[in-house]
Amino acid sequence: MPKANRPLFITFEGVEGSGKTSRMGAAARYLESRGHRPRLTREPGGTAIGARIRAILLSPDSGGIDETAELLLYMADRAQHVNTVIRPALAAGETVLCDRYFDATVAYQGHARGLDIRRIRDFHRVALDNFMPDLTLLLDLDPAVGLSRALADAGRPADESRFEHEALAFHNLVRAGYLALADEAPERFAVIDAAQPPEAVEERIVAALTERLNRLAQAIRHG
Ligand code: TMP
To answer: From ligand 1's centre to the CA of 104, what distance in Å?
Structure first.
Protein backbone atom coordinates (compact mmCIF):
# COMPACT_ATOMS: atom_id res chain seq x y z
CA MET A 1 0.00 0.00 0.00
CA PRO A 2 1.69 3.27 -1.06
CA LYS A 3 1.96 5.91 1.64
CA ALA A 4 1.54 9.68 1.34
CA ASN A 5 5.04 10.14 2.73
CA ARG A 6 6.66 7.68 0.34
CA PRO A 7 10.25 8.65 -0.42
CA LEU A 8 10.49 11.36 -3.06
CA PHE A 9 13.20 12.53 -5.42
CA ILE A 10 13.25 16.34 -5.35
CA THR A 11 15.68 18.52 -7.29
CA PHE A 12 16.71 22.17 -6.94
CA GLU A 13 17.69 24.15 -10.01
CA GLY A 14 18.59 27.72 -10.87
CA VAL A 15 21.25 30.02 -12.30
CA GLU A 16 24.48 30.80 -10.45
CA GLY A 17 23.79 32.64 -7.19
CA SER A 18 20.08 31.77 -7.10
CA GLY A 19 20.51 30.53 -3.52
CA LYS A 20 19.24 26.99 -4.06
CA THR A 21 22.03 25.40 -1.97
CA SER A 22 21.28 27.66 0.99
CA ARG A 23 17.51 27.09 0.75
CA MET A 24 17.74 23.28 0.72
CA GLY A 25 18.11 23.11 4.52
CA ALA A 26 14.70 24.74 5.04
CA ALA A 27 13.13 22.29 2.60
CA ALA A 28 14.74 19.37 4.44
CA ARG A 29 13.47 20.59 7.83
CA TYR A 30 9.95 20.95 6.49
CA LEU A 31 9.98 17.49 4.88
CA GLU A 32 11.20 16.02 8.15
CA SER A 33 8.21 17.60 9.92
CA ARG A 34 5.98 15.84 7.38
CA GLY A 35 7.45 12.42 8.19
CA HIS A 36 10.17 12.20 5.54
CA ARG A 37 13.79 11.23 6.07
CA PRO A 38 15.68 13.77 3.93
CA ARG A 39 18.99 13.02 2.30
CA LEU A 40 20.82 16.03 0.83
CA THR A 41 23.14 15.60 -2.11
CA ARG A 42 24.35 17.43 -5.22
CA GLU A 43 25.58 17.22 -8.80
CA PRO A 44 28.22 17.25 -9.90
CA GLY A 45 30.16 15.77 -6.97
CA GLY A 46 27.67 13.77 -4.89
CA THR A 47 30.04 10.77 -4.69
CA ALA A 48 33.80 10.34 -4.13
CA ILE A 49 34.32 9.65 -7.84
CA GLY A 50 31.95 12.51 -8.67
CA ALA A 51 34.06 14.90 -6.58
CA ARG A 52 36.99 14.11 -8.89
CA ILE A 53 34.80 14.64 -11.96
CA ARG A 54 33.54 17.92 -10.45
CA ALA A 55 37.10 19.18 -10.05
CA ILE A 56 37.72 18.64 -13.77
CA LEU A 57 34.41 20.20 -14.80
CA LEU A 58 34.58 23.36 -12.71
CA SER A 59 38.28 24.19 -12.79
CA PRO A 60 39.10 27.34 -14.77
CA ASP A 61 41.99 25.23 -16.17
CA SER A 62 39.45 23.10 -18.09
CA GLY A 63 38.61 25.90 -20.55
CA GLY A 64 39.75 23.77 -23.48
CA ILE A 65 37.31 20.94 -22.77
CA ASP A 66 35.37 19.63 -25.76
CA GLU A 67 31.61 20.26 -25.42
CA THR A 68 30.70 16.60 -25.90
CA ALA A 69 33.40 15.54 -23.41
CA GLU A 70 31.92 18.05 -20.93
CA LEU A 71 28.44 16.63 -21.48
CA LEU A 72 29.65 13.06 -20.96
CA LEU A 73 31.48 13.97 -17.75
CA TYR A 74 28.22 15.37 -16.32
CA MET A 75 26.51 12.16 -17.44
CA ALA A 76 29.26 10.01 -15.87
CA ASP A 77 28.97 11.91 -12.59
CA ARG A 78 25.19 11.37 -12.72
CA ALA A 79 25.42 7.64 -13.47
CA GLN A 80 27.70 7.13 -10.46
CA HIS A 81 25.41 9.29 -8.30
CA VAL A 82 22.07 7.79 -9.34
CA ASN A 83 23.26 4.19 -9.14
CA THR A 84 25.27 4.37 -5.92
CA VAL A 85 23.50 7.12 -3.93
CA ILE A 86 20.07 8.23 -5.20
CA ARG A 87 18.44 4.91 -6.05
CA PRO A 88 19.78 3.14 -2.91
CA ALA A 89 18.63 6.06 -0.70
CA LEU A 90 15.12 5.99 -2.19
CA ALA A 91 15.00 2.21 -1.80
CA ALA A 92 15.97 2.65 1.88
CA GLY A 93 13.03 5.04 2.35
CA GLU A 94 14.91 8.35 2.26
CA THR A 95 13.61 11.42 0.42
CA VAL A 96 16.44 12.69 -1.77
CA LEU A 97 17.00 16.44 -2.15
CA CYS A 98 19.46 17.00 -4.95
CA ASP A 99 21.19 20.30 -5.76
CA ARG A 100 21.00 20.20 -9.60
CA TYR A 101 20.20 17.24 -11.83
CA PHE A 102 19.39 16.44 -15.48
CA ASP A 103 17.51 19.72 -16.09
CA ALA A 104 20.84 21.48 -15.49
CA THR A 105 22.35 19.50 -18.36
CA VAL A 106 19.51 20.47 -20.70
CA ALA A 107 19.71 24.13 -19.61
CA TYR A 108 23.53 24.51 -19.58
CA GLN A 109 24.83 22.06 -22.20
CA GLY A 110 21.67 22.21 -24.35
CA HIS A 111 20.07 25.67 -24.27
CA ALA A 112 23.22 27.65 -23.38
CA ARG A 113 26.08 25.65 -24.92
CA GLY A 114 23.99 24.72 -27.94
CA LEU A 115 24.28 20.91 -27.97
CA ASP A 116 21.37 19.04 -29.52
CA ILE A 117 18.77 18.62 -26.76
CA ARG A 118 17.25 15.52 -28.37
CA ARG A 119 20.67 13.90 -28.27
CA ILE A 120 21.17 14.91 -24.62
CA ARG A 121 17.82 13.29 -23.78
CA ASP A 122 18.80 10.16 -25.73
CA PHE A 123 21.99 9.87 -23.66
CA HIS A 124 19.97 10.17 -20.44
CA ARG A 125 17.56 7.49 -21.65
CA VAL A 126 20.36 5.11 -22.56
CA ALA A 127 22.50 5.75 -19.45
CA LEU A 128 19.81 6.03 -16.78
CA ASP A 129 16.54 4.85 -18.27
CA ASN A 130 15.36 8.49 -18.18
CA PHE A 131 15.30 8.50 -14.37
CA MET A 132 13.61 11.80 -13.39
CA PRO A 133 12.59 13.65 -10.20
CA ASP A 134 9.09 13.70 -8.67
CA LEU A 135 9.38 17.44 -8.15
CA THR A 136 11.76 20.18 -9.29
CA LEU A 137 12.01 23.54 -7.53
CA LEU A 138 13.33 26.16 -9.94
CA LEU A 139 14.71 29.21 -8.13
CA ASP A 140 14.32 31.78 -10.86
CA LEU A 141 16.55 34.85 -10.82
CA ASP A 142 18.00 37.42 -13.21
CA PRO A 143 21.54 36.06 -13.86
CA ALA A 144 23.01 39.58 -13.54
CA VAL A 145 21.84 39.57 -9.90
CA GLY A 146 22.84 35.92 -9.35
CA LEU A 147 26.35 36.33 -10.73
CA SER A 148 27.08 39.37 -8.58
CA ARG A 149 25.83 37.38 -5.55
CA ALA A 150 27.96 34.36 -6.54
CA LEU A 151 31.10 36.44 -7.12
CA ALA A 152 30.63 38.20 -3.75
CA ASP A 153 30.33 34.81 -1.96
CA ALA A 154 33.62 34.53 -0.07
CA GLY A 155 33.00 30.82 0.63
CA ARG A 156 33.02 29.95 -3.08
CA PRO A 157 36.26 28.12 -4.04
CA ALA A 158 38.19 29.95 -6.80
CA ASP A 159 39.00 26.60 -8.46
CA GLU A 160 35.25 26.08 -9.14
CA SER A 161 34.65 29.29 -11.04
CA ARG A 162 34.71 28.14 -14.70
CA PHE A 163 30.99 28.75 -15.32
CA GLU A 164 30.99 32.05 -13.47
CA HIS A 165 33.44 33.29 -16.07
CA GLU A 166 30.99 32.57 -18.89
CA ALA A 167 29.44 35.71 -20.41
CA LEU A 168 26.15 37.04 -19.05
CA ALA A 169 24.56 36.07 -22.40
CA PHE A 170 25.36 32.40 -21.61
CA HIS A 171 23.64 32.65 -18.21
CA ASN A 172 20.62 34.39 -19.76
CA LEU A 173 20.28 31.36 -22.06
CA VAL A 174 20.53 29.04 -19.03
CA ARG A 175 17.70 30.94 -17.33
CA ALA A 176 15.53 30.91 -20.46
CA GLY A 177 16.25 27.17 -20.83
CA TYR A 178 15.12 26.44 -17.30
CA LEU A 179 11.92 28.46 -17.79
CA ALA A 180 11.20 26.61 -21.04
CA LEU A 181 11.65 23.28 -19.22
CA ALA A 182 9.25 24.43 -16.49
CA ASP A 183 6.69 25.36 -19.16
CA GLU A 184 7.02 21.93 -20.76
CA ALA A 185 6.47 20.06 -17.48
CA PRO A 186 4.34 22.25 -15.18
CA GLU A 187 3.18 19.27 -13.13
CA ARG A 188 6.78 18.49 -12.13
CA PHE A 189 8.14 22.05 -11.74
CA ALA A 190 7.46 24.75 -9.17
CA VAL A 191 8.98 28.08 -10.24
CA ILE A 192 9.97 30.28 -7.31
CA ASP A 193 10.97 33.94 -7.52
CA ALA A 194 14.45 33.91 -5.95
CA ALA A 195 14.80 37.71 -6.03
CA GLN A 196 12.80 37.90 -2.79
CA PRO A 197 14.45 37.87 0.66
CA PRO A 198 15.55 34.36 1.85
CA GLU A 199 12.64 33.97 4.32
CA ALA A 200 10.09 34.71 1.58
CA VAL A 201 11.77 32.25 -0.79
CA GLU A 202 11.70 29.58 1.94
CA GLU A 203 8.00 30.23 2.54
CA ARG A 204 7.32 29.73 -1.17
CA ILE A 205 9.38 26.52 -1.16
CA VAL A 206 7.40 25.16 1.81
CA ALA A 207 4.13 26.13 0.07
CA ALA A 208 5.21 24.33 -3.13
CA LEU A 209 6.22 21.23 -1.15
CA THR A 210 2.93 21.26 0.79
CA GLU A 211 0.93 21.53 -2.41
CA ARG A 212 2.82 18.62 -4.03
CA LEU A 213 2.64 16.42 -0.93
CA ASN A 214 -1.11 17.04 -0.61
CA ARG A 215 -1.63 16.34 -4.30
CA LEU A 216 0.33 13.13 -3.97
CA ALA A 217 -1.68 12.05 -0.92
CA GLN A 218 -4.90 12.75 -2.84
CA ALA A 219 -3.71 10.77 -5.87
CA ILE A 220 -2.95 7.85 -3.59
CA ARG A 221 -6.39 8.06 -1.91
CA HIS A 222 -8.16 8.16 -5.28
CA GLY A 223 -5.80 5.85 -7.07
P1 TMP B 1 26.90 24.30 -8.57
O2 TMP B 1 27.77 25.52 -8.55
O3 TMP B 1 25.46 24.59 -8.43
O4 TMP B 1 27.40 23.22 -7.68
O5 TMP B 1 26.99 23.71 -10.08
C6 TMP B 1 28.17 23.49 -10.69
C7 TMP B 1 28.21 24.07 -12.08
O8 TMP B 1 27.99 23.05 -13.04
C9 TMP B 1 27.18 25.15 -12.38
O10 TMP B 1 27.85 26.21 -13.03
C11 TMP B 1 26.22 24.50 -13.33
C12 TMP B 1 27.05 23.44 -14.01
N13 TMP B 1 26.31 22.26 -14.46
C14 TMP B 1 26.20 22.00 -15.82
O15 TMP B 1 26.68 22.77 -16.65
N16 TMP B 1 25.55 20.86 -16.22
C17 TMP B 1 25.03 19.95 -15.33
O18 TMP B 1 24.48 18.91 -15.74
C19 TMP B 1 25.16 20.22 -13.91
C20 TMP B 1 24.60 19.25 -12.92
C21 TMP B 1 25.80 21.40 -13.53
So the answer is: 6
